[in-house]
Design brief:
Pfam families: MutS_I (PF01624), MutS_V (PF00488). The protein has about 1150 residues and is of the alpha/beta class. It is about 40% helix and about 15% strand. It has a 6-stranded mixed sheet with strand order 10-9-6-7-8-11. A hairpin with a 5-residue loop joins β29 and β30. α2 packs antiparallel against α4, α13 crosses α21 and α14 runs antiparallel to α16.
Length: about 1150
């Protein structure tokens, strides 16, 4: 029985956020060999195997044909050799340079046949490697040779340079460059190579007996690309592995509409096209994604001015500066066809492989965020800027849900999608039932593992959990409405249109199929073999790799054969080894006497006898002598003697062989069943991708709602933009009104933020002192508008937000020496983009306009920009310290003057950070400098210079005091909660008894203080479920069943955190909770004490009985008429 000796590996990588690409395109399935089956079970086009052949040196005609083909070979591979030469020129390590000096650029491996082991004659390993290399000429080739993965020539230099490996044979100059890594280090090596942008082709050798003096057959087992890991052998693993998001191949071009991007995912066999982008939007996409390769179309060389100098100032310069620091290749022709051709060439795909266009056209979709906007509100991490994503989601919500939210913010959705997301979030905010844990599986992981038939039983359990959670959403009356709404944003994210009825039916069918085959969590009907005289570790190691993977009923005969073999092995060990051990134990020899025991030789997967000095000096036919005579030295798989102390017998070896053969047969059958299930599920891959993405979106939105409720954010009223100029609608559509706006990085629940009211119907020209809050206000407005446009909650008390077609924020600019541009040039480039893109439906926010140039001309440029924006009719804010702008003869019609307020305190101005009407001409520059520690002498001299040139009579009436009245956040709304879980009959009856007793105890207590009858309504949170967002900020009392069958009673104001804390303890991962909400912590503490003291009287055992002996809450004669405890 052949066995694959390669360890399963997976390589981490960066993530790409175009969720619409995660759709599988129908195409012929590709299969890679995971262990040598019969040849007719694989696609022969994907298997490249070469065996030893005799080299014909006497046939002159054959030699001539060989030379002719060699010349063609060189000509065909010349571009690839040049590509590798460029890679060699980028190497910098000393050890790499020594190897590079021994290369020759005449073949794909760079081998010099004049060096030792450099021959590539037919039948040699180098000849075999060249054949493999010709299939994937731009991939690093790693070939399995015994216990190592080796690389030669160019590939060896790459391993030394980027994977930190040492060359074989040191730096000897008489041999070809060669490097490699042990089998156990393959994962790390692949990780290092893909992180540096290289693709790797892995060649395995078939393990097993071979003919004498013959070379082992080899085959390409798989590839590792950036964002696409090597998955060969994963089906044998017993744990889940994290997968990176796929990294696309990107193409950029210029069209009549603007800039165009094409993204291609080889894993998913899909591509998407986005046209009409701005230069800044393209730069943002490049800055926020990690791609495998970048191709630039020659149309980019000709900008709007008609010149071919892409590096000139103006349009195109920003994009060139971004691309110039990256590796790219030029292409021409049709952008889509050329990119697809390059992808097939890059990944070695056949010409008939097709890619599906998953672009979802959407009218009236807002423009993607500009780089400046995304940076200045913390979507892209920027030094000194608070991260928006950090406050949108709880700290424990990471991975795919966080990436979905990030992608949505960078690419705001159309109004229909945004309104649907908001409707979903509103429903989530008020549901009263428990919710699933939402198992998130990367769609690319599903596609690759199922397509290559490498999904293991752990992955199938996760798939079933995801399907069951989707069904849970359907079966629950409250969650079903959310499921119906989630279908629309899932379609937008995946490009798959699947209705709810089809989704539910398929989920039920697939879940049933998996459940019939896979041994699920909690099922443990397949115990490891166990015998007294054999170490348990032996059976654990031999059988854990295949038992408890599939249900025993499918392999009953194979299991029985293994059990019989294990029993025979135990009998052989008992008969041949045990008498010897008993003889030694019976010998009362002093220190240094005979030793012997039955041990597990882990390295050799054998049970042997280990001992010394156990042979008797005189053979007297005593017990054990017969067995001692049967002993023979143990040998390893290569026929070598293991050691002087290891012994075995023929009977034991025969039993071991039988046991290993039975185990190998059972394991092979298990793996075939798992691979067969992967093949069966490939036909349902679109359903699996859709369900997986739906749960990702659901988890992201539930997490956002939970954090939003905790921070006391609100849902805005989102107004759809109207292009028509109908009377009575225009003003409403162009109005943004936000009450109690808070900076998004402040936690309003803690009451530390200064709130502002924004009533915007036109442009604001904003002035204010340094440190007065202008930049913070602009960031706050921008973030609130973006969150509203995406359908999320906003940091305010109430909000009316139009669905803007673009949100553009410019805060500050830095110079770019690499591009030869000053900070003012960068600012003007951004202003050009803003002014040319702004419409009457846009939001434009510019902080301290034209501050990077001479005051007079900068003031005039700023005035002209304000006039332009005013004539466009967009909403927005332009802040400035250029007070001479008010002396210009501006022709604005709708611009309103606003200022950041200040108070006079002890004769000095202090900012209030409140937005007011009017103009503020005081900058507080001297006060700010003094506050930041500028020497007093410099400040005094500055004041003297100011008074001598700019002194004016300031009217004291200019300063007005403003007193802030901050309304306290509204109290949390009481919501009813009800139990809606499906559990086993036994547990259901147990929790029903607990609920009845809890209701009786609490009702009785409440009725003592209230004239009206009140009810306690409980909610059960089952295993792999969590409390709904309605529990955020609400007091509750809960009961938990511990593993020791005792109850624990507690109270909390943060039930979600308390549930996580309990479940993080040992054996509590699947604990169930019963809880009910109460109006206040005092009531919660009183009822907690009451339950602790009363539940034991009803037959329940408690683990925290002592907590009820020292609490005395709620003893006052408080009226409980207002207490309404709901389920």
């Amino acid at each position: 029985m052949y066995r694959s000796a390669a360890k399963s590996v997976a390589v981490s990588g960066h993530r790409w956020r175009s969720m619409s690409l995660l759709v599988r395109c129908p195409l012929p399935r590709r299969h890679f060999i995971s262990y040598p089956p019969s040849i007719n079970t694989r696609n022969p086009k994907q298997i490249y195997r070469f065996k030893d052949r005799k080299t014909l040196t006497t046939n002159i005609k054959a030699t001539k044909r060989s030379k002719e083909s060699k010349n063609v070979y060189k000509e065909k591979d010349h571009p690839h050799v040049i590509w590798w030469k460029e890679k060699m020129q980028m190497c910098r390590k000393t050890s790499s340079m020594h190897l590079i000096n021994r290369l020759t650029y005449s073949n794909l491996l760079g081998l010099d046949d004049n060096l030792r082991n450099g021959s590539a004659k037919e039948g040699t390993l180098n000849w075999e490697l060249l054949k493999f290399k010709s299939k994937f000429p731009r991939e690093v080739l790693l070939c399995r040779v015994g216990e190592f993965y080796e690389a030669v020539g160019f590939d060896a230099c790459i391993l030394v340079e980027y994977a930190g490996l040492n060359p074989f044979c040191g730096l000897r100059s008489d041999g070809v460059p060669k490097a490699g890594c042990p089998i156990m280090n393959l994962r790390q090596t692949l990780d290092d190579l893909t992180r540096n942008g290289f693709s790797v082709c892995i060649v395995e050798e078939i393990q097993g007996p071979t003919k004498a003096r013959s070379r082992k057959s080899r085959f390409i087992s798989g590839h590792a690309h950036p964002g696409s890991p090597y998955v060969f052998g994963l089906v044998e693993d017993d744990h889940d592995l994290e997968f990176p998001e796929p990294m696309p191949v990107i193409g950029l071009s210029r069209s009549a509409k603007g800039y165009c991007t094409v993204s291609v995912l080889e894993t998913m066999k899909t591509y998407s096209l986005e046209d009409g982008l701005t230069e800044e939007a393209v730069v943002t996409k490049l800055r926020t994604c990690h791609y495998h390769h970048l191709f630039l179309h020659k149309s980019l060389k000709n900008n709007s001015s008609g010149t071919a100098r892409w590096t000139e100032f103006g349009e195109g310069g920003l994009l060139w500066g971004e691309c110039n620091g990256r590796h790219f290749e030029w292409i021409e022709g049709d952008i889509v066809n050329e990119i697809l051709f390059k992808v097939k060439e890059l990944y070695g795909l056949d010409d008939d492989v097709s890619f599906r266009n998953v672009t979802i056209p959407s009218e009236n979709k807002p423009h993607p965020l500009h780089l400046g906007t995304a940076s200045q509100i913390g979507i892209i991490p920027t030094e000194g800027v608070p991260l928006l994503l950090k406050v949108l989601l709880p700290s424990n919500c990471t991975g795919l849900p966080a990436l979905y939210i990030r992608d949505l913010l960078l690419n705001p959705p159309a109004y229909a999608t945004a309104s649907t997301i908001q409707a979903i979030c509103k429903l989530m905010s008020y549901i009263s039932c428990s919710i699933p844990e939402f198992t998130c599986i990367a769609p690319s992981k599903l596609v690759k593992l199922l397509e290559l038939r490498e999904a293991n039983h752990v992955e199938f359990c996760k798939i079933k959990s995801a399907l069951d959670e989707t069904l849970q959403l359907h079966r629950n009356s409250e969650l079903n409405e959310i499921l119906n709404l989630l279908v629309y944003p899932t379609w937008v994210a995946t490009g798959l249109k699947i209705d709810v009825e089809l989704l539910v039916n398929k989920c039920e069918s697939i879940s049933r199929t998996i459940g019939d085959l896979i041994s699920l969590y909690g099922e443990n009907d397949q115990k490891m073999s166990s015998y007294v005289n054999i170490p348990s570790e032996f059976f654990e190691d031999m059988e854990s790799s295949w038992k408890n993977r599939v249900k025993k009923i499918h392999l009953k005969e194979a299991y029985e054969e293994v059990d019989k073999a294990a029993e025979s092995l135990s009998l052989a060990v008992t008969e041949d080894f045990l008498p010897i051990v008993c003889r030694i134990k019976a010998t009362t020899a002093p220190l240094g006497g005979p030793k012997g025991e039955i041990l597990y030789a882990r390295e050799h997967k054998a049970i042997w006898f280990k001992g010394k000095r156990f042979a008797p000096a005189i053979w007297a036919d005593t017990p054990g002598e017969k067995q001692i005579k049967q002993l023979q030295p143990s040998i390893d798989s290569k026929g070598r003697k293991v050691g002087e102390e290891w012994f075995t017998t023929v009977k034991v070896e025969d039993a071991l062989t039988r046991y290993h053969e039975a185990g190998a047969k059972a394991k092979s059958m298990v793996l075939e069943l798992l691979r067969g299930l992967s093949t069966e599920l490939q036909d349902e891959i679109n359903i699996l991708v859709f369900a997986s993405m739906l749960l990702v979106i659901a988890k992201a939105l539930f997490a956002h709602v939970s954090e939003g409720r905790r921070r006391k954010w609100v849902f805005p009223t989102l107004i759809q933009s109207q292009r028509s100029e109908e009377k009575g609608q225009v003003n409403r559509n162009r109005e943004m009104k936000i009450t109690g706006l808070s900076p998004y990085w402040f936690d309003t629940a803690e009451g530390s933020a200064v709130l502002n009211n924004i009533d915007m119907k036109s442009m604001f020209l904003l002035t204010g002192p340094n440190g007065g809050g202008k930049s913070s206000l602009l960031r706050s407005i921008s973030a609130a508008a973006l969150l509203g446009v995406c359908g999320f909650m906003v940091p305010a008390e109430s909000a009316l937000i139009p669905h803007f077609d673009a949100i553009m924020l410019h805060v500050k600019s830095y110079d770019s020496p690499a591009d030869g541009k000053s900070s003012f040039q960068i600012e003007m480039s951004e202003m050009r983009s803003i002014v040319t893109r702004a419409t009457s439906q846009s939001l434009v926010l510019v902080d301290e306009i034209c501050r990077g140039t001479e005051t007079a001309k900068g003031t005039c440029i700023a005035g002209s920009i304000i006039e332009t924006l005013d004539s466009v009719g967009c909403l927005g804010v332009v802040s400035t310290h250029l007070h001479d702008i008010f002396n210009l003869p501006l022709t604005t019609k709708n611009t309103v003057y606003k200022a950041m307020g200040s108070d006079l305190v002890n004769g000095k101005a202090k900012p209030t950070w409140k937005l007011i009407d009017g103009i503020c001409r005081e900058s507080l520059a001297f006060e700010t400098a003094q506050k930041e520690g500028v020497p007093e002498a410099i400040i005094q001299r500055a004041e003297h210079l100011y008074n001598s040139v700019y002194k004016r009579d300031l009217n004291s009436e200019t300063w007005k005091g403003f007193h802030e009245v901050c309304n306290q956040p509204a109290s949390i709304q009481e919501v009813t909660v009800s139990s809606a879980n499906e559990i086993t009959n036994h547990m259901e009856k147990f929790w029903k008894d607990v609920e009845d007793v809890v209701c009786i105890i609490c009702h009785k207590k409440l009725n003592e203080f209230s004239k009206t009858k009140t009810m306690v309504r409980c909610v059960l949170v089952g295993p792999r479920e969590q409390p709904p967002p309605s529990t955020i900020g609400a007091s509750s009392v809960y009961v938990i069943l511990r593993p020791d069958k005792k109850l624990y009673v507690g109270e909390t104001d943060s039930l979600q955190c308390r549930v996580r804390a309990h479940r993080s303890k040992k054996d509590m991962q699947n604990a169930s909770f019963l809880y009910f909400l109460v109006p206040g912590k005092s009531v919660a503490c009183q009822l907690e004490t009451l339950l602790i003291n009363q539940l034991p009287n009803h037959g329940f055992k408690l683990t925290n009985v002592a907590d009820g002996q020292h609490r005395n809450f709620g003893t006052s004669d408080m009226s409980l008429e207002s207490l309404n405890l709901h389920r």
